[in-house]
Structure formats: C-alpha cells, structure tokens
Write a structure and sequence with these properties.
This protein is an alpha+beta fold. The protein is built from six helices and 16 strands. The longest helix has 15 residues, at 130-144.
C-alpha cells in the first residue's frame, strides 16, 4: 500500500533554541520512501544525521532570532506487510538471542522492567513463548488501562501508568515494553504516522524481537496495524521523540495526517482481532 504522510509544526521563539526533529520516515526492507521533503519557514539550515544503530533519521535546526518558525514534512511511502503464522514463532531464549535484540532486554528511562518483574511474573509468567507473552500483555493493557488524553506528561513512565491505570499511546507502549522485558522478551518503542487514527496525530506502539524479525503490537487498538508508517524506534520515547528541544520555544500549531495515496482504491484493515482469528502476526524488518 502507498501512503501520503504530512506533519506541520509551528513554534514561537523568544530566544535562541536548538531542535532535534524525528519527522522523516524510516527506510527499511518493508518501508520505501518514494518521495519526501522537509522545509522550514523562514528558511534555515537543516543538518541531517542518523543515530540509534544508524536507523533513525534526525534533523537538527538551530534558531537565533525571535519570532516564529514552521517545519513541514511531506512524504509518499510504499508499505508492505509481511504476515506469518504465530505457530512458527519459537523463541530460543537469551542464550541464542541475536545481538541486535540484546539492548532491548534492559531497563530504560521510561520502561523500568526491573521494577515490574514481580508483577509481570505473577500476571504472565505462565506463558512460554515470546509472542504469547506480548499478545497477552497487550490485551491486558487494552482491557485494564484507560486511554485518557492529557492524563500523563513527558516524565510519565511504565510504573506510573501501571499505578494510575490511565495514559495515552506513549504510556501504553512503555508499559507493554516494560512487561515484556521483565519476562526476557526484547521489546522496543516505535513512533508512527497512523492511517485512520482519529483524531490524527503522531502515534506510538511497541515491537518485540523474535528470530531476527520485529513483531508489532498496539495496546490502544486505535488504528489498523497495516497502516502504521514508522518514523523512529528505540528503547523508549527518549530515543524516538518527534521533537527534542533545547531552549524555551512554545508550540503554537501541530497538524499531522496519514492518508492513502490517491491511486490506491481499497484498504483492508489488519487489526488485533483479525490477526488472532487467522493465527498470524505482522513481521517487520
């Protein structure tokens, strides 16, 4: 499927500031960038670079003068979806784990898996396969954590979400990651543009690592899984934030969209329920 994504951010500047944006989509084996542009108004220098194992694409912008600045990103993305039978997903344990997955076993700033190990074992310790663990964790979050806009902030962690029983997509993803890592399942955070998300915004989900592939989960169930266009991945939101700011600019406008490209005539949503019914999972490179 081919998608058109767009994000526009505008800031008011009172003093010099430096922005680190993660707006540009990832380039992977299952996600191809057909075209893209990133522009600012007024025009300023944009420094592009990769971090986090060379995968995430960041843009650094330095501003000196007061006033306003807007950043606009547009891209056309070709997205393929690989579906595999869950019965084939057999984890080999940490002794055989591909080194790519090892960093995603450890606790991180927002995913304190070491503090949740007792709860995770009590709730999900009877499960044996990595996929069944992640699937049950995701279902439990959907059923027990309330999605409440504005209920958390940039300091909220997985522990906070479990205690308060509410959060947004970022918090749902962090809790899923922490629970999986507590049970020795490598898990990472992903920021995405999401087709049919309402209202449109940046979205967050999590992925687990089995046998060299990443498998997608979204405890919010707010959008079809085959409409996720990945922007950045990492240990948690600290690695994959859409914007990290050094200074005190104020965000005055934010617009995000993800739509089917006009040439596409149909879209069959892949959801948690359709995957469960077919005994399949979505695999990502």
């Amino acid at each position: 499927m081919r998608f058109s994504v767009n994000s526009e951010l505008e800031y008011n500047l009172n003093s010099p500031a430096t922005f680190l944006f993660a707006l540009r989509c990832l380039e992977t084996g299952d996600q191809t960038i057909i075209s893209e542009s990133l522009v600012t108004t007024p025009e300023v220098n944009i420094e592009e670079f990769h971090i986090i194992s060379g995968m995430n694409r960041f843009s650094r912008i330095r501003t000196r003068n007061p006033g306003s600045i807007s950043i606009s990103y547009r891209a056309e993305i070709e997205l393929s979806t690989k579906r595999v039978d869950v019965s084939s997903l057999i984890g080999g344990g940490t002794a055989e784990l591909n080194p790519e997955g090892i960093p995603f076993l450890f606790p991180s700033r927002y995913c304190q898996s070491d503090r949740l190990r007792r709860q995770a074992n009590a709730m999900f310790g009877h499960l044996t396969s990595p996929h069944s663990i992640a699937s049950c964790v995701s279902d439990w979050i959907y059923e027990n954590i309330a999605y409440v806009s504005g209920s958390s902030d940039e300091t909220s962690s997985a522990v906070d979400t479990l205690e308060q029983r509410q959060g947004v997509c970022r918090d749902f993803a962090h809790l899923g990651i922490a629970m999986c890592r507590a049970l020795n399942v490598p898990a990472r955070y992903a920021t995405v543009y999401a087709y049919q998300l309402c209202p449109q915004d940046f979205h967050a989900c999590f992925e687990i690592f089995i046998g060299g592939w990443w498998y997608l989960f979204d405890p919010t169930r707010l959008a079809p899984l085959n409409g996720f266009v990945r922007i950045a991945t990492g240990r948690d939101a600290a690695d994959a934030a859409v914007c990290t700011i050094f200074g005190d600019p104020q965000l005055t406008r934010s617009t995000v969209s993800c739509e089917l490209e006009q040439s596409q005539t149909s879209f069959t949503p892949v959801t948690r329920d359709s995957l469960v019914n077919s005994g399949q999972a979505i695999a990502l490179l």
